[in-house]
Amino acid sequence: MPKKLITHTQKHYGIREDAQEFPMMVVLSFVYVCNARCPNCPYNNSEIRATYKDAMIMSEAIFKRIADECGQYRSLLRISGGGEPMLHPKATELMRYAKEKGCRIGLITNGSRFHQENLNVLIEAGVDAIEFSVDAGNITEYDMVRPGLSWKILNRNVSMAIEIRDKLKAETRIIASIIDQKGIDVNLAETYWTKIVDKVQIRKYLTWGINANHSADETPYLPLEERIPCPWLFERLNIDSRGDVTLCGEDIAFNEKFANIMEYSIESIWRGKIFESFREMHLRRKGNEIPICLKCPDWRYRSWHYNYWKVLKDAEDNKR
Questions:
Q1: Is pTM, for the whole model, over 0.90?
Q2: % of the chain exceeding 70 in pLDDT
Q3: CA 58, CA 242: separation in Å to the nearest integer?
Q4: Which entry of 29, 101, 153, 230 is 20 to 30 Å from 8 by CA?
């Protein structure tokens, strides 16, 4: 059966219904340390990590301040960053804390640092989704795009997560993420992981303005000439390990930071004049007059419908 065609645009644009008061998603650069040497990682191909020597991991104080406020709105904390989140020495403890405060949690991981104990804690705590960055469907291709990691350990830990989730009858969704990049048989990878996880997400290859272009599918979601508003501004906020806030997740170096959550509430930043002005520019189809948006090489790959929310829904519908 052919795949259902996904529409990436819509008739009217504006702040998401569930983001009127507070971002639906707060994306955290939780760590900047990594145990992989992925050749197409923008952090491996830049000096960004060197600029975070004073904040290679997010402090407990900053994380808890974020979790305390996000929990009041049931916002989703997307645990990500410039490295492997499970290398944070308090990763399990802090995610459990956030769940107790009412946050939803979406963890993005290379899957290498799990064992029975920490998976039990995370899944029992109610982590909403564990997204494994798998990127391949066999050991040969995996070793090429994920050097430093083990295909065997990845498979073991994905299976372990499924087993624990099912044993606990928990709600955690188990997702596999595959970047559609040159050298990878994305159809083979999708077929392989679909048999194991709740949902496979195929991602566009992004350069982040840093990487060389290794995309295997450059078909855009949004026609750039129409300057359709970027959905990220209308649903999510990005915070780094220092608590700094930037306009957009494309700015992984946080060069355009304009506030810090230790000085201002997330709510006040989200509905403040600076962020509102960025959104207004996009709604007037003048987003390209914002310097970071003008230079963004990946705007064309944003979608108003093929996004993390769809992945979560599909994973829930497919949950084994």
A1: yes
A2: 98
A3: 7
A4: 29
